[in-house]
Specification:
The protein is mainly beta. It is built from no helices and ten strands. The protein is globular, with a radius of gyration of 15 Å.
Length: 145
């Protein structure tokens, strides 16, 4: 059975993020209901992250070429781009103004399964402010329809 995701379909979304910086490590886990949409050859996984009563819309765009874009729209708006072994400039819109950073992707792997349709993104990247490495990030995204 072929699933039509062009209008979107509810999905269980699980995101686990580990951030290592300055000798300490933080881990965040989100289990939310979200939505998967298939549009122009890419999958869009959308969900809300909740921080202290504030909901932040998050979108992952998984492209057929293997590239990934992560967009967060909250108090700060973030748009990060990832491709295996590549360095991309990204900017954070903060209340104090625009901050420019770079992501360097160490590992990027996307896989899909049928019955039920699901996907997994494994991403490891470093975040830089100029030449200064701010931290090492690991992210795992799972979604199941």
């Amino acid at each position: 059975m072929e699933i039509d995701l062009s209008k979107g379909m509810a999905a269980k979304v699980e995101v686990e993020t580990t951030i290592s910086q300055g000798g300490s490590t933080e881990r965040f886990v989100f289990n939310q209901m979200g939505k998967v949409v298939y549009m122009n050859g890419s999958y869009y996984i959308r969900y809300q992250e909740a921080y202290d009563e504030v909901e932040v819309p998050v979108t992952f765009k998984l492209e057929p070429t293997g590239g990934v874009t992560l967009i967060r729209r909250g108090e700060t708006t973030t748009r990060m781009r990832f491709e295996q072994g590549e360095r991309f400039e990204t900017s954070y819109q903060t209340p104090q103004g625009l901050v420019t950073m770079q992501t360097v992707t160490r590992q990027l792997q996307v896989s899909y399964k049928q019955n039920p349709f699901s996907g997994e993104l494994q991403l490891e990247y470093d975040l830089y402010l100029g030449q200064e490495k701010l931290g090492e990030h690991k992210l795992r995204l799972l979604f199941t329809i």
